[in-house]
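We modelled the chain as a single entity of 240 amino acids. Its sequence is:
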Amino acid sequence: MRHLRLAATCGAAALLLAGLALAKEEKPVRADGQPAAGQEKPARPTKPPEGMRDEGREGHRPPMRVPHIFRDVTDQDIAEIFAFVDEYMPWMRPDLEKTRDTDPDHFRQVCRNLRFEIAQLKSLKTQDEAAFRKAIEERQLRYRAQDLAAKARAATDPKERDALVEALRAVVDQLLAAEFATREAQIRQLEHRLDDLRQELKTRGASRPAIVNSRIEEMLKPKREPESKPRSEPRPTEKQ
């Protein structure tokens, strides 16, 4: 199960970014849990008259969408995760199955992170096959390094421990080389993206007068009044 800790942290950066985005919407509260000054809770809306449609209520908003990375995994997600693991990261399969059987809650957390990581890997595969292979090799070497380190820590025979440490040294050296190759591929992608942005900016600069005229024409168009939806009349109450 210790090897799955790496998989469980693969989406840490994305979770942090999503958490920072959500934190902007949080309201300050006092120590007693009540809203801080200027942040009083709004009055609870009264129940609409019977028969009134939700979309006709003033102030009605659709429920907030939960970011994909925070959504619970479905059976289809788990099946796709196992299919990807079997094809590209088979060394993870035994620990995944063990975690699924012994700790279902942790298993679903690991799968949420893997769902995000695998999506990133699939995107990388479509852009740069060589970089994708290096990314897979990096994960395999990191997994192997963690396994050797655990065995070295548990070894009681000094000779056995020394042999494991030497094997670990070789794997860590290979891992570092794979990390360098992956970062170089990422830098190349960023450079290509910068070149595209520079070319786009140059093209738009040459078309600046036309863009100005187009925007002015759009801004001068008469605004179309939004269509109002008719409200359903509330049902009259029966007289006693």
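As a brief sanity check on the tokenised model: Confidence is low (pLDDT under 50) at residues 6-43, 48-60. The longest helix spans residues 158-206.
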